[in-house]
């Protein structure tokens, strides 16, 4: 039996790969990743590609996030970028740098998180998501780079640049919960982990403890609405964008790219976020919750704009509109206090 | 005017990107990298993909390699993997982690090295090679991850698994010079940099100093024979593989993947390598040179097998043959002393 407490410094690279590769789905390949490069199908004559890096003590802490959490999160933030183009993810390529003291158990857990993210993608898109290649190296801190590839399946790509006056601005997925989870941890109030059969609480009543657990889960394992990009493309959305740096900042980017101004209509109440915020700052709960919603990053919700009169696809909520006759790039309807956000609460 | 001694810790990410992106070629794109993901053409319905990570003080030292050298090397080692499939490189995606103390001059030089590698690829393949995406992050050490994408342009991919009894084994590109360059530097005998108009010395007579400069150049800026994979595919090569871990180790992998045995015919003399080796170890020059040739990694030469009687494409030299009636996976004709190699000389 293999001792999972062995460190990778005690294993040959081939031994390590033999533990990891069988855990990972292959997805659709012509030639798989045992050769110098993988050959992957690109049936519609194009491929969608993006890349992201996560560095220990900058983007995550091993005290807060398990290997599985980190594998999930780095895969999901890339799959969310693919989704935002109106595409389905097909393959990931992984670069993993680890200190020699990293245990085999951690690496296997990391691979499990990657696999779970691939499975979630496959479920969302109805087509396999695999790991087409990778490279391992030693280093002083954990560093993970992921390149995600995807397919538009013949669809026209969604960009940030297509929003037009009169369009409805809508969002799918959670906003502010990752920032709330991080704020809880930063305050030393780390909630219990959610049970494996946790349910999305965003539309139901829940106790303060449940909301805190939910936010902590979203921080560690963000739940981007992976089907939303394809759904938006299918009803002719005019623009779309993954929200990774906070709603206000990313909405500003979309407005500038499209050359339009946008009026935001914030929600009347944010019961989950307010409940968490009040546990941290009783007298400022509402303001803090508002700030998370406007400026919290890394939930990886999807922002999209739809021609006026389009029925919004499942999962989208209208949060504003593109203004007529306005100078491009401006945002209105935003509480400046709420929009300062994010940086106040650290970046994990 | 921008002060190039400013550090990236003093620059906003947008400012930094504005300095880097204009230096990089875009290649062929449908949607370029200003959006959540790039959309790239894949005209023949498939895409070739691989990834590699380089970590400071593991794969390079900033005292020995400039930013430009590192950008060149990480791009080239990936483009070489693409070439080994019989494909042409089309796009790179870059993850770059840097300490806040990194200067703007270093980053611009890194981008220049990437661009030069893309230009060398474009020249070799007669089609553009671009940078389709990237991500920047802070960290304690420099870490670069590159994913390379490529196109087979309708060709059948070359794998490691196709060598057949009777085939000729051949190699294109340099062998052992990267290890020789590293050995010089490790011994504290760093040669002068080659002039920009340096010429390939591998077939000509040269002085000991020139050979040392050449080896030092190959260590910092390996020169994989990027056209060789396509040329090999075009004459129906049976297998191909990038040599990154040394000839003997990688030849063993090809033999095992193909289920064949291979007899190696080492060259009679290695004038360049012997000249360098004698400057380091006068009495053991020939043995050391032999060891570099057999076991030195990171020249990124191309190994390929050809059906008996095939005229080898330009740049290839025969170095052995696939044996008839032999158990799979064995190598013969190898001096065991020479094959120990590589690890003795450190891995930079």
From TrEMBL, chains A, B:
SUPFAM superfamilies in the cross-refs: PurM C-terminal domain-like (SSF56042), PurM N-terminal domain-like (SSF55326)
Signal sequence coordinates: none
Enzyme Commission number: 2.7.4.16
Binding site for ATP: 134-135, 160, 244
Role played: Catalyzes the ATP-dependent phosphorylation of thiamine-monophosphate (TMP) to form thiamine-pyrophosphate (TPP), the active form of vitamin B1.
GO molecular function: ATP binding; magnesium ion binding; thiamine-phosphate kinase activity
Binding residues annotated for Mg(2+) 1, in chain numbering: 51-52, 135
Binding site for Mg(2+) 4: 36, 81
Reaction(s) catalysed (UniProt annotation): thiamine phosphate + ATP = thiamine diphosphate + ADP
Entry binding sites for substrate: 59, 298, 342
One Gene Ontology biological process: thiamine diphosphate biosynthetic process
More info: Reaction mechanism of ThiL seems to utilize a direct, inline transfer of the gamma-phosphate of ATP to TMP rather than a phosphorylated enzyme intermediate.
Pathway given in the UniProt record: Cofactor biosynthesis; thiamine diphosphate biosynthesis; thiamine diphosphate from thiamine phosphate: step 1/1
Stored Pfam families: AIRS
Annotated CDD domains: ThiL
Keyword ATP-binding: yes
Protein name according to UniProt: Thiamine-monophosphate kinase
Binding, Mg(2+) 3: 36, 81, 242
Annotated residues for binding of Mg(2+) 5: 245
Domain PurM-like N-terminal, first and last residues per copy: 34-151
Gene3D superfamilies: PurM-like C-terminal domain, PurM-like, N-terminal domain
Sites where the protein binds Mg(2+) 2: 52, 81
Family: Belongs to the thiamine-monophosphate kinase family.
């Amino acid at each position: 039996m293999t001792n999972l407490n062995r460190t990778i410094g005690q294993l040959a690279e081939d031994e390590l790969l033999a533990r990891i590769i069988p855990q990972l789905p292959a997805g659709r390949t012509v030639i798989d990743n045992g050769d110098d490069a993988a050959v992957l199908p690109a049936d519609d004559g194009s491929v969608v590609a993006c890349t992201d890096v996560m560095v220990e003590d900058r983007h995550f802490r091993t005290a807060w996030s398990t290997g599985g959490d980190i594998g999930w999160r780095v895969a999901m933030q890339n799959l969310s970028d693919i989704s935002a183009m109106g595409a389905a993810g097909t393959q990931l390529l992984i670069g993993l740098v680890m200190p020699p003291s990293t245990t085999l158990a951690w690496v296997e857990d990391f691979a499990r998180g990657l696999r779970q993210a691939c499975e979630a993608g496959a479920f969302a898109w109805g087509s396999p998501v695999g790991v087409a290649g990778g490279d391992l190296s030693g280093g002083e801190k954990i560093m993970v780079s992921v390149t995600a590839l995807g397919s538009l399946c013949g669809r026209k790509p969604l960009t940030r640049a297509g929003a037009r006056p009169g369009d409805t601005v809508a969002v799918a997925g959670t906003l502010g919960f990752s920032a709330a989870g991080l704020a809880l941890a930063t305050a030393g109030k780390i909630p219990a982990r959610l049970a494996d059969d946790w349910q999305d609480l965003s539309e139901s009543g829940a106790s303060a403890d449940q909301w805190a657990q939910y936010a902590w889960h979203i921080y560690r394992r963000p739940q981007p609405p992976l089907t939303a990009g394809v759904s938006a493309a299918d009803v002719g959305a005019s623009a779309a964008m993954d929200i990774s740096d906070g709603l206000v900042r990313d909405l500003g980017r979309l407005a500038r790219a499209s050359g339009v101004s946008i009026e935001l209509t914030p929600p009347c109440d944010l019961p989950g976020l307010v409940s968490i915020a009040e546990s941290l700052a009783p007298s400022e709960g509402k303001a803090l919750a508002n700030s998370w919603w406007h400026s919290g990053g890394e939930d990886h919700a999807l922002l999209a704009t739809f021609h006026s009169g389009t029925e919004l696809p499942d999962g989208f909520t209208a949060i504003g509109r593109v203004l007529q006759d306005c100078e491009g790039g401006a945002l209105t309807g935003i509480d400046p206090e709420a929009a300062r956000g994010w940086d106040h609460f650290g970046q994990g």
